[in-house]
Specification:
heterodimer; A: 583 residues; alpha/beta; Rossmann fold; 9-stranded mixed sheet; 3-stranded mixed sheet; 38% helix; 16% strand; B: 265 residues; 2 domains; 5-stranded parallel sheet; two-stranded antiparallel ribbon; 12 helices; 42% helix; elongated
Amino acid sequence: MSREPAAGPDVDRLDLLASAIGGRPLEVGAGRPGEPTWTDGTIVFVDPDAGRAEQVVSVAVQASLLVGGGLGPAIVRQLGGRPGLARRYLGLEGHRALAASEPLLPPAVRRLIDRDVAAGLADPEASLVRARARRALRPPPESFGTIRPRRLLAADRRDEGTTTGDVGPLRPPSPTGDLPDLDEQPDDEDRGRDVGGLLASPVGGRGLLGRLLEHLLRASRDARGGAGPAGADAPTHRGSARSRGRGTLTSSPPGAEARGPTAAFGPRLRTYPEWDVRRRGYRADWCTVRERAPEPGDLAPLAMPDGHVLRRPLARLGSGLDRVHRRPQGDDIDLDAAVEARVATLAGAPTDGAVYVENLRRRRVLAVLILLDVSGSAGEPGPAGRSVHEHQRSAAAALTAALHDLGDRVALYAFNSQGRTAVHVTRVKGFDDRLDGRVAQRLGGLVPAAYTRLGAAIRHGAHVLDETGGTSRRLLLVLSDGFAYDHGYEGRYGEADARRALTEARRRGLGCLCVSVGAGTAPLALSRVFGPAAHATVPTTGQLAVVVGPLFQVALRSAEAQRRTFQRSERTREQLELDRRTA
Amino acid sequence: MTSATRPYYVPVGVEEQVFAAAFRQGMAVVLKGPTGCGKTRFVEAMAHDLDRPLVTVSCHDDLTAADLVGRFLLHDGETRWVDGPLTRAVREGAICYLDEVVEARQDTTVVIHPLADHRRQLPIDRLGVVVDAAPGFCLVVSYNPGYQSVLKDLKDSTRQRMVAIELTFPPADVEEKIVSHEAGVDHEQAAQLVQLGQAIRRLETAGLREVASTRVLIAAGRLIAEGLPARAAARAAVAGPLSDDPLVTAGLVEMIAVYLEDEGC
């Protein structure tokens, strides 16, 4: 049988197609050459050597199976270790799922549907019942790929936030990694089950052993310091995977700017240096920031607070409409200009016709990026009873709403970390995203976990602000308990790096302010971390309105001065360079 | 003046009846719906049906009350009052359509308040007069609820003065008919374009600025009607306008290749 020419490695171009048919963000990754297509529920792995047409069909089938519920855990559990049944089931359910998604399918895929098979099947359960019956069935076309029940179940466990030992949150659902052939082998309930499976099993999962292990492995941090060397990445605890990148993360070595296995929905990777206070120097490309958008599973309802109270102090920062005289057009006649123009005309002099008063909005051009700390320490209750996370989340929501209402450009990102290679930054609202219910749901779905590598998060926030802020006046607002702690990022080291990151941002002309809400952190401790940046601590969100106006003013004024200094020094540097070359 | 032929509009619900009833009752209308779903075309069709002239104002950030109501201009050394489009519509009994009204500043939109309620009057401060709306005057504003604007939203006091008609993208069969008619392509080609559009609409979270509207599908169809291959037409009229991100654009181009079949392929 002749094969079409290979489509090449750019299988990620099929991401959008998979997502459109699947009705959820799906990625397409390259699997092992020659192997049938399969999915873990998040990524569809296709044969990179197959022709494009075959890849399109495979992706459409797997995405249809997902959207039609044919790969739900209840079904897939029954297929585990029974490759024969899984194949028969795929031969039936594949056609049923395609028929159900038919209006969305490309013409080439629609032609594959066996309507006789699909007609008698109402739902995935019906397909399974018929697959079990000992009746001869036509095998599924090769382009349908295969079903890997264990991979689907493992991904499902990750989605539920189960702590895993062997398959950690930073491990990609590699097509070539471990558990390669288990789905194709006869059933053996316990063989090859990973630690995640143990924890999720009826015995270990929610039982005593499971809970004990989970408790032991849960992210926590100890202010008394860690055991690792400064800056080193030697995790001693595992965190809840829920608020991080889940199965889509990769642990590949980072480049200056790299992409995940697939483009449209994968995490964006970027490396940043870190300040080593002991060596008085930077560690180049030391931290990897993984920026991602929350997935549908990360959403939870949250009522957005009214930013009304904060609007007044923040509004004073801007300026309103100006009546500008001597304009060529405007709402009213500028009498002085009109009289002068008339005199000039009578005197035979030319006039420019600028005889109107125009109301011009001299709107402040301000972009604000809010960085919300969602590390494990924020989950702990503050002095007032509510958790620091609840306070900070509500403050972030109120500030976002108020700034948005005032017409400022505003973005909201959440961050936590698990070692220097895994600083997770979640985009709750980008500068160009709408402020709608989805933003509230993303915010509501944030669960505090893991640690705080504050410096890398600040550097990334400053980078995003530079790249997408789009205005000359830019502010970075950090909402954190001010507790910089991560693997190899303790005490003086972490504080110095966070301070350094803020200084770097300020030198570039960004206004920086840091607010701690409901954490009860001592002012001195905050000063050590936030250094010369404007900072304050308030016990509740309600009191934010008191400090936020002055804080913004200080930060903006300081940024203005820094920007002028920066521009002056740049000009001097350029002049010196020019002089040197001329000489 | 209304045009001789009715602008092509296919109703998808009772929007025409609601509009006609509101018109007869002298009530203002707010049209809500995404970009390119047919709001403007609907107003044009209704103006034709009701035999009223249509005055359209595209609202923007710097639109002032004087831009709507009117202003004094200097001409040959004398001041002369010039009516704005809203005043003209009020005097003539026309349908005044304020497109994307949230783009206008709130201090501008307040001038429509006395027109939108039972008073149906337009106070003109600079002239010191109050103009009663002529019979047949109808205020229509359009508004895209998901659109991020500087002013973000309509004030409640403005919203509550109006009858809301919600428009969305039409169902596939209706949209096929619209694309086929407007672009001049055959039904099969229109069906492929609509299917592509509907698939893209399921990608609302994929970093697209807007989803593929009926308008962009018609634009692609018109290029096809000019003899361009379907995929090239869709790349120019759909993928290009929807995203500047090269990765997203590459994904859209791939979808176009999958959903649209060029002749001879």
